[in-house]
UniProtKB/TrEMBL annotation:
InterPro entries, per the entry: CdaR-like_regulators, CdaR_GGDEF, NO_sig/Golgi_transp_ligand-bd, PucR_C-HTH_dom, PucR_C-HTH_sf, V4R, XylR_N
Pfam families associated with the record: GGDEF_2, HTH_30, V4R, XylR_N
Family under the similarity heading: Belongs to the CdaR family.
Ranges for domain 4-vinyl reductase 4VR: 106-168
SMART domains named in the record: V4R
Highest taxon, organism lineage: Bacteria
PANTHER family the UniProt entry points to: CARBOHYDRATE DIACID REGULATOR (PTHR33744), DNA-BINDING TRANSCRIPTIONAL ACTIVATOR ADER (PTHR33744:SF1)
Protein known as: Helix-turn-helix domain-containing protein
Length: 610
């Protein structure tokens, strides 16, 4: 029996394989090692293959140019290409040493392109790694110098052809090619295995950490922890400073940084986020997880989505601006989901409570209670101390596209306000009352600032609606709630320009009107103007408007004509008729002043629209 030879006793054997088999090997390498490490393997494989063929060519001998010419034939014989077009320059000194070499060429029908596209589709970079390595190894062995090919264009990434350049190592000076040359460096297979094993360990540790994080948050949710406790758990588990903020990026709770740091980071953040020319935040830019790089810190932010609507944000802070925040994508999104579940549960409970609070508020507005002490006591259960100062606010909604009187729409707006204020831990009473939204706002510092943010929030969530708030004066007893309601409505009627209309800033006549004298003022004014009010609606409104404009213009005929779009005869006819009906001389200052005062009062009370 013939004894089996050892590999050391055998010559280097040549084996053949099909392109499909090689394509399968190539596919497994890419899928298991990744594109970059598979490229390194294929470059080294091609290099050794080219080197082996070059050794055989050197045994036959010939000039350097003749031996280099055989590279194309070897490519063709091994089935790697169907043809080669090459333009090569080789300069050899008197001793046969290659002093200069360069080439440009094209591979025809590269087998690697066909296999890569079949298994992976179009690539974003050249794919003929074996051909590149073969040419580099073959040329380097023949010339005795380190010469490298680089594929410039490739059909595997959608180019028209597979073209390459060839230069000595020292002539390649761009960074990308230097990185590619590093891929030719020898590495033991055991090193590859160790690297893969370390990656697997890292992945295992990451999965275990993510699983522990997930289980911890789930347990906290089921235990009924508060949002503050949940944020503390996130910080303790990940050791990353974290916060929950509302849609205007104002904080509800944060951990891992102190108040001074938070304020510094907030200023840095506002200077870094996308804003309009007028300085408003472009909220549409932040409806998905995003990274903001500031000058003092980096933050990783994910929206908290409840019932398909963002209600706030969870933020991870990085003091190291070079930190790779995207590594925590799984953690921040899980944290955002947990926060969303918390707020969804809170919202469900809140809606039930809000319905009770709305009914309670309606009872207050209608004075349907037996005693002050009992209603104050019930207020404690609602989180409202009715013995403390408060304001009554009326929310005015206008839109060219929507019917803002619909109860369903008003309910949506009320929910938007309650969700927002819940993030601020600010308790109010709110209800739909007599076709509009009414709020009882306990006195707090910077109440106007709070209202401004509420209006910003509403404008963000309801883009086709314009909002304005009418604010009453400060009240200290629930017995005057109805007065506060009327004051808030008067503020809206008198001030149509400001987003927040305060009763304390209305005109003198407005400030003289309150619930105690309202009926008296209305009765006196209507009695004086009774002859006009008895006319049909069209004639009544026509004469009231004419009277108001004429008096406001101080009896100036030309200005009144212009404002009313009337002729002189038309205006004089109306003035004469008004004077007969009221039995008053409109050019008499005392009579004119008295009539204007009455019209202003009725306008403020909402009885007329002039």
């Amino acid at each position: 029996m013939r004894k089996l030879e050892t590999f050391d006793q055998m010559e280097d054997k040549k084996i053949s394989t099909t392109s499909a088999t090689f394509g399968l090997l190539r596919k497994e390498l890419i899928e298991n090692l990744g594109v970059q490490r598979a490229k390194s393997f294929l470059l080294k494989y091609g290099w050794n293959l080219g080197k082996a063929h070059a050794i055989d060519v050197l045994k036959v001998g010939g000039t350097t140019e003749e031996m280099l010419e055989k590279a194309g034939a070897l490519h063709y014989e091994t089935g790697q290409i169907s043809g080669l077009i090459s333009n090569r320059e080789v300069i050899v000194d008197e001793n046969g040493e290659v002093t200069r070499i360069s080439a440009k060429g094209e591979w025809l029908d590269s087998f690697e392109v066909a296999e890569h596209v079949k298994n992976h589709g179009i690539s974003n970079c050249p794919v003929c790694h074996t051909l590149t390595g073969f040419g580099s190894g073959f040329t380097s062995t023949i010339t005795g110098r380190r010469v490298f090919l680089r594929e410039i264009e490739c059909r595997g990434k959608g180019d028209a052809s597979c073209t390459f350049e060839m230069r000595p190592e020292e002539d390649w000076d761009d960074a990308d090619m230097q990185k590619e040359i590093q891929l030719y460096q020898e590495s033991r297979f055991i090193d590859e295995l160790n690297f893969t094993y370390e990656q697997l360990l890292e992945q295992k540790d990451f999965i275990e950490k993510a699983s522990t994080f997930h289980n911890t948050l789930t347990t906290r949710l089921s235990d009924g922890d508060s949002i503050e406790e949940m944020i503390s758990t996130i910080y303790d588990t990940l050791n990353i400073p974290v916060s929950i903020e509302d849609l205007n990026f104002h904080p509800r709770v944060y951990r891992g940084i102190d108040e001074i740091q938070y304020k510094t980071f907030s200023e840095d953040f506002y200077n870094s986020i996308n804003k309009t020319k007028s300085g408003k935040i472009l909220y549409s830019s932040y409806d998905k997880t995003f990274v903001i790089q500031g000058k003092a810190h980096k933050r990783f932010v994910s929206p908290i989505i409840v019932q398909k609507k963002p209600i706030g944000y969870i933020t991870f802070f990085y003091l190291d601006k070079e930190a790779d925040a995207e590594n925590e994508t799984m953690f921040i999104q899980r944290a955002a989901t947990s926060a969303a579940l918390y707020f969804l549960n809170e919202k469900t409970s809140l809606e039930a409570v809000e319905n009770i609070k709305a009914y309670f508020f309606e009872q207050l507005l209608q004075k349907q209670y037996t005693s002050i002490p009992s209603i104050v006591y019930r207020g404690y259960y609602m989180g409202i101390d009715l013995k403390e100062p408060f304001f009554i606010a009326s929310l005015k909604c206008t839109s060219e596209h929507l019917d803002v009187s619909k109860v369903e729409l008003l309910d949506q707006i009320i929910q938007s306000i309650t969700r927002y204020l819940e993030m601020q831990s600010y308790k109010i009473l709110i209800t739909e009352y007599e076709g509009s939204i009414v709020m009882l706002l306990p006195k707090v510092d910077r109440l106007n600032y709070m209202l401004e943010n509420i209006l910003k929030h509403l404008s963000h969530e309801h883009r086709h609606i314009a909002f304005q708030v009418g604010m009453s004066s400060q009240h200290g007893s629930i017995e005057t709630i109805d007065e506060g309601l009327e004051e808030s409505r008067v503020a809206l009627r008198l001030n149509t320009a400001e987003k927040i209309a305060s009763f304390e800033e209305v005109s003198i006549i407005g400030s003289l009107i309150n619930s105690k004298n309202m009926l008296t003022i209305r009765r006196i004014a209507r009695k004086e103007l009774e002859p006009i009010f008895e006319l049909k609606d069209h004639k009544r409104d026509e004469l009231l408007k004419t009277l108001y404009v004429f008096l406001m213009n101080g009896g100036n005929l030309q200005q009144s004509i212009s404002d009313l779009s009337l002729s002189m005869s038309g205006l004089m006819y109306r003035i004469t008729r008004i004077e007969k009906l009221l039995n008053k001389e409109l050019r008499n200052p005392a009579a004119a002043y008295e009539l204007l005062l009455m019209l202003d009062a009725l306008k403020i009370l909402g009885d007329i629209d002039v």
